[in-house]
Amino acid sequence: MSTPTRVFAQSLGRVARNYHPTLSWDELEPSLVDAWHASAWGGTTSWSRVRELARSSWTHADA
Length: 63
Prior knowledge:
Elements: H1 3-19, H2 25-38, H3 47-60
Helix pairs in contact: 1-2, 1-3
């Protein structure tokens, strides 16, 4: 996985947590999947490959 892909996945989780601190991961993940597929990386890297990066960043973001 390329560094830009990794950085974007991590940013996606972190930004989602900062904008929606009261939502659970399960509530938020469908929107993140849609955002991932709409991104430049969605066509080259599957959500399943970056899901844990996004979730880890979401979990560790300052809420």
